[in-house]
Amino acid sequence: MARPEQPHDDEYTHVVPAALYISIWAALMVFTLITVLASFAELGPFNIVVALLIATIKGTLVVLFFMHLRYSPKLTMAAVIASIFFLFIMFSLTMTDYLSRGWATFAGR
Amino acid sequence: MATSTEIQAAERSFQHHFASIEQQRDTATFGMWMFLLTEIMFFGGLFCSYLVYRHNYYEAFVEGSQKMNIILGAVNTAVLICSSLSMAMGVRAAQMGNRKLMVILLLITIVFGFGFLGIKAVEYHEHWTNHEFPGPNFHFETGDPAHPATDPLHTEIYFGLYWAMTGLHALHMIIGIGLVTWLVIAGMRGAYSPMYYSPVENVGLYWHFVDLVWIYLFPLLYLISHKHS
Amino acid sequence: MATAVQPVVERETYLNSNYGLKSWLLTIDHKRIALLYLMSITAMFWLGGFFAMLIRLELLTPAGDLLSSDTYNKMFTMHGITMVFFFLIPSVPAVIGNFVIPLMIGAKDLAFPRLNLASWYIYMLGAGLALWGFLFGGVDTGWTFYTPFSTAYSNTHVVTVALGIFVVGFSSIFTGLNFIVTIHRMRAPGLTWNRLPLFIWSNYAASLIMVLGTPVVAITLLLVAFERLFHIGVFNPALGGDPLLFQHLFWFYSHPAVYIMILPGMGVISEVVTCFSRKRAFGYEFVALASIAIAVLGFLVWAHHMFVAGISMYSALVFSLLSYFVAIPSAVKVFNWTATMYKGSVRFDTPMLYAWAFIGLFTVGGLTGVFLASLGIDVHVTDTYFVVAHFHFVMVGGMVVAYLAGLHFWWPKITGKMYPEAPAKLSALLVFVGFNLTFLPQFVLGYMGMPRRYHAYPPEFQVLNVLSTAGASVLAVGYVLPMIYFLWSLRYGKDAGPNPWNAVGLEWMTPSPPPTHNFDETPVVTWEAYDYEHQPQEEITVGH
User: Fold this and answer.
1) CA–CA separation, C144 vs C427, rounded Å?
2) Tens of pLDDT along A67-106?
3) Can you give the pLDDT at residue C490?
4) Domain count for chain C
């Protein structure tokens, strides 16, 4: 029976420095503040763009560093990107229906 | 240096259909990522519904979201971010073999988790007493006597999505707290060490995912618009 | 003279390693779990068949005289739910995939054996919930659960059955997750991606769909349950909701779901066609990539189920175009199977008979799918028997036939026994004839305008309906016979040996039935897939 080896700092057992974690935490707190403040600015249709952009930045930081995706095999990154892709397919193709419902059609329909 | 308990725990954890403990560790982590992808699609259906109805009934959504307590929502966001920090540091402590620190950090994570749920409970109570739960007893008031509700029928949809999305999220939080509690108990018994800390890492992934969902829920539900027409 | 001597089993196999109910119910051996699934889905197949029988009996006469319309609604609903969620989706993956995949890649088990067992228990829980709903009044919404009928107007056990499907969805998700991780991480040394059997590629692609698509139908059914229980109006227009949103979310999964069903079957056909042509797969890379293409493109076409539901015309045009594209990789596979057989050394053992049936029937079914992708035709034949015939051609003429091909092909590996070839060939013939007699008339009926989901019809449609019911009876006999001779073979079948078909593949390099740990030594693979050129051309003698 194989005896488990002691860990070594390879691609998979990378130990992230505590300082990095704390910086990420600080960035997340700052971006939270920014998103709340930005919501009070009157940007019209761009409010949602800004909100989602900030949320995505925060999410990327969480996924890359807290979830170690930065230090994980490329396969994991490919899988995450694939699922986001299919999520966007669901959103965008569904919206092709709702966005075009009011458009002019041929006579009689 | 690993204690004999930890060495034994690591050896007991090795499953023999794997060729090596590295293969087991990588496989377990990859498996957790795959599970999280299914969770993305699971919440995704609700986000898709939100997208459609917000597009169709924007005013109704604005009025609904203006009844949200932004301060409590923002505080909760901060609470979850702090819990992610303590969780990440807890995983790191497990990697470094610092059992005591790991347990403390996991306990802090649990406290933050309960903090989130407590604040959520306060919010839920407020919405419930304001009849802002969809169903036969739903009754929506903007809170401003000068501005009656524009489209209460569709604000009910907004609240339906609010309760469904935050409720599903809270359920995942509860499960997460349960998982971290299990880690604390097993951890105190010396189950984890630098040789074997996969469960800590993988529960950590789950926990961060739950934080990630909230990072999107907060602006979408609470921060749609502060403009009162 | 000497009577038949029962060989004394000295060798440890997964079947004799442990006895007793507990050793089966608490097993984590993928091979035993595969057999647990075999029993469950066979039972559900017969339940679904029972509902089909009642449907076909009702349709013998134009008047709705056997069943009331409400009861008839329940019959086609429960037939669809049972067959789709509890038979077709698990069939090849959970039975054949579970058994064969670790063997094919030279592994000792799947990546997560305990999760595998949990998947079966989750399946049983979901089936239990659905059966409870069926028994205590049934459900009449159609397997598609369209709102607001399902959420506000139906008086049947919608919530129980919807929850049953919700639960069984997780069985599918965990199986797919297990397969993806296993195929990525547990392959034997030397087994690179382009040496993998096409059965692995197909199941991998199907698993991608299981993992990405099933959660969406899960949350959708949960919302249906909430809407029904708490009168939340997410999908109910009277309460501000949109019934089309339900359809978008439902079909986002349920269209790719049909590829979950067919892809593993296509994988079986790839294995059978190469073995019984004794040739490597023509265009291996194209077939492998076509599996992935089907999985990806399959996610882009769902609203072709909604062309007349009220979606915008422009959206319909987009989905129609995308639906044409999704036919291409399937066609690539059909061409490649045919080219594999060309100038091959073809033998017509039962698995190959089923494979031929598959290629013909799936092609017809697939082509009629392309007709349905055309907006002009779809407006005319949607919700008629044309659609019913189309999906039965691909699901029954395609998928069930492929499942039978796979059962026959791997039966010797699973049990160590050969099935009797003569009754098997007869069954294949009965299935083929019965199937065509059942479903070809339905294309005509649909084109002539007979609507689906109606228990009564105009008298001019009766002749074709009677033919269809007659065909169904023949088909049923074709399905009963394998039950009998497979069971017979367990006791009286000839010993199969490790490789009765002289096939190329790791699963044939271990004894039949395999030992619990699959291989005595982890194999190292140095050959390409389907390396029949370097295999000695031996006569297949076992079982003939």
Assistant:
1) 32
2) 999 999 999 999 999 999 999 999 999 999 999 988 877 6
3) 95
4) 1
Helix axis angle for C243-277 and A74-99, nearest 10°, is 130
**Residue B31 lies inside a defined structural domain of this protein:** no
Residues of C in contact with A94 (CB under 8 A): 245, 248, 252
Spans in chain C with pLDDT lower than 70: 1-9, 535-544
Closest to A36 in 3D by CA, of B215, C243, B133: B215
Between helix C350-373 and helix C401-415 the angle, nearest 10°, is 150
Buried-state track C432-449, b at ≥16 Cβ within 10 A, e below 16: bebbbbbbbbbbbbbbee
Give domain status of residue C359, yes or no.
yes
Mutation target vs A (from B14, B27, B43, B212; most A CBs, 10 A cutoff):
B212
Residue of A nearest to C185 (CA): A75
In a domain, C21, yes or no: no
pLDDT of residue C64: 86
What is the span of the domain harbouring residue C252? 34-534
- Which CATH number does the domain housing residue C199 bear? 1.20.210.10
SS3 of A3, please?
coil
The answer to the question of residue C313 being in a domain is yes
A83 contacts on C by Cβ (under 8 Å): 212
Radius of gyration of chain C from Cα atoms?
23
Tally the domains of chain A.
2
Verify that A21 and A56 share a domain, yes or no: yes
CB contact under 8 A, A97 and C303: yes
Select from C147, C108, C41 the least CA-distant residue to C406: C41
C174 neighbors C207 (Cβ within 8 angstroms) = no
Residue position matching structure tokens 């079914």: C365
Tell me: do A76 and A33 sit in the same domain: no
Structure tokens at C9: 């089993």
Q: Which residues of C, range 472-531, sit inside 8 Å of B by Cβ?
A: 522
Distance CA A58, CA A32 (A): 8
- Is residue A107 included in any domain, yes or no? no
- The answer, yes or no, to whether residue A65 has pLDDT greater than 90, is yes
pLDDT at C139: 96
Residue B25 domain-assigned? Answer: no
A-C interface: how many C-beta pairs under 8 angstroms? 41
Q: Which of C295, C292, C215, C211 is nearest to C249 (CA)?
A: C215
**B50: closest chain C residue by CA:** C234
* C4 lies in some domain: no
Record: contact B38-C107, CB cut-off 8 A: no
- Give the residue ranges of chain B where pLDDT is below 70: 1-2, 229
Asked whether the beta carbons of A48 and B216 are under 8 A apart, the reply is no
Classify residue A91: in a domain, yes or no: yes
Task: Report the CATH number at residue B136.
Answer: 1.20.120.80
Least CB–CB distance from C113: residue in B17, B57, B156: B17
The whole-number pLDDT of residue A109 equals 52
**Are A44 and A79 within one domain?**
no
Using pLDDT thresholds of 50, 70 and 90, give the confidence band for residue A107.
low
Tracing tokens 């490649």 back to the chain, one arrives at: C336
Residues A79, A49 share a domain: no
**So what's the ipTM on this one?**
0.94
Is-contact C431 C480, C-beta < 8 A? no
Question: Which residues are CB-neighbours of C37 under 8 A, at least 6 positions away?
Answer: C90, C94, C95, C98, C120, C123
Residue B69: give the domain boundaries.
42-222
Predicted local confidence at residue C535, as pLDDT: 67
Q: Do B30 and C185 touch (CB under 8 A)?
A: yes
Confidence of residue A14 (pLDDT cuts 50, 70, 90): confident
> Does the pLDDT value for residue A108 go beyond 80?
no
Residues written for chain A: 109
pTM for the structure as a whole: 0.94
Residues A55 and A21 in one domain: yes
What is the total count of domains within chain B? Answer: 1
Residue A30 belongs to some domain of the structure = yes
Both tokens assigned to C276: 């019984």
